[in-house]
């Protein structure tokens, strides 16, 4: 129950929650959850027993966030820093898209991807659209900056479909493009040389599958992680196939990969056009695919921006700064060409 305690210029809302146990989880360890809401929404929250008093212009919005979090706890779900960040992002997206039914404006994420170890929920509208595309389309592109969850969400959907028996295998691949060091000069076997390039894919899989099960599945080759070059000549049937770092695939590699799609399979292709490591003058296959395949039925293109970054908040600021600099340089280049 909420009570408005002050006039509009000094808004304060009081919320009373009956369950002491849920209240502990709502507040977070040492008040961490409340502190996060204060920082992200520009409000001040006073905690007294089972009562929260929210001060600030955004108090009504913070009230809806807190009520949604409490309802989540009542439903037996967890509240974490990531969940709070996602709810606030979705609330901001709702406001930008226009007013709606006040009771439905902040229902929380509607999508849940269940795996053996955890449940993944999209945190932004772009992530929700991408997740739906992965569930509904046979070929899905996720394009945008680092930290937006492109690969992580794709791996979660792949594991979910594997668990339910919709696919028999998961195949994860990425181009082993050298960025500073030559593979031939690195010590170890070919697998040991390639493994560092594949580590982000291992990390994502470990988040969704128990270690022993993942090891067994890899031994049985029901889960494969391999460089893109290893895909040549194969037909990938009844599999969920993910091509990560696709901006580093050449046009020929991209065509080769796309034509591996077999019956009963799905493909997800993720990439960041601002981080191409190909030699100068070599066209990115991801850019070509965007141009050639746009409008083809059954293929979904999904785009992310810095506002979808779900890593440290500084990552979004860094990406925005680099994008602004790229825009400035492009404008200068165009100006020089005019002269």
From TrEMBL:
The keyword Mitochondrion does not apply. GO terms for molecular function: ATP binding. Residues 120-323 form the PhoH-like protein domain. The keyword ATP-binding applies. Coiled coil: none annotated. It is found in: Cytoplasm. InterPro entries: P-loop_NTPase, PhoH, PhoH2-like. Keywords: ATP-binding, Cytoplasm, Nucleotide-binding. Pfam families: PhoH (PF02562). One of its GO terms (cellular component) is cytosol. Belongs to the PhoH family. PANTHER family: PHOH-LIKE PROTEIN (PTHR30473:SF1), PROTEIN PHOH (PTHR30473). This is PhoH-like protein. It comes from Jannaschia seosinensis. The gene is ybeZ.
């Amino acid at each position: 129950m909420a009570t408005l305690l002050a006039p509009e210029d000094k808004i304060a809302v009081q919320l009373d929650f009956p369950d002491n146990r849920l209240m502990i989880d709502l507040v977070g360890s040492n008040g961490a959850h409340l502190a996060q809401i204060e920082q992200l929404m520009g409000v001040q929250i006073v905690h007294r027993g089972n009562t929260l008093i929210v001060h600030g212009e955004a108090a009504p919005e913070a009230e809806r966030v807190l009520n949604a979090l409490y309802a989540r706890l009542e439903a037996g779900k967890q509240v974490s820093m990531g969940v709070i960040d996602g709810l606030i992002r979705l609330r901001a997206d709702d406001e930008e898209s226009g007013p709606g039914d006040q009771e439905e404006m902040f229902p929380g994420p509607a999508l849940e991807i269940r795996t053996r170890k955890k449940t993944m929920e999209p945190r932004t509208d772009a992530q929700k659209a991408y997740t739906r595309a992965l569930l509904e389309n046979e070929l899905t592109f996720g394009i945008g900056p680092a930290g937006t969850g492109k690969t992580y969400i794709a791996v979660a959907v792949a594991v979910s479909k594997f668990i339910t028996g919709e696919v028999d295998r998961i195949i994860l691949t990425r181009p082993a493009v050298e960025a500073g060091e030559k593979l031939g000069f690195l010590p170890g076997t070919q697998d040991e040389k390639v493994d560092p390039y594949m580590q982000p894919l291992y990390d994502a899989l470990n988040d969704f599958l128990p270690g022993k099960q993942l090891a067994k599945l890899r031994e049985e080759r029901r889960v494969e992680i391999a460089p893109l070059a290893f895909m040549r000549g194969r037909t990938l049937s009844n599999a969920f196939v993910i091509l990560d770092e696709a901006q580093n695939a050449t046009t020929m590699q991209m065509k080769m990969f796309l034509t591996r799609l077999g019956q009963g399979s799905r493909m997800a292709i993720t990439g960041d056009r601002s981080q191409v490591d190909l030699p100068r003058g070599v066209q990115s296959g991801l850019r070509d695919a965007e141009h050639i395949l746009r409008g083809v039925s059954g293929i979904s293109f999904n785009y992310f921006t810095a506002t979808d970054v779900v890593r440290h908040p500084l990552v979004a600021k860094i990406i925005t700064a680099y994008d602004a600099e790229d825009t400035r340089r492009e404008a200068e280049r165009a100006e020089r060409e005019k002269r």
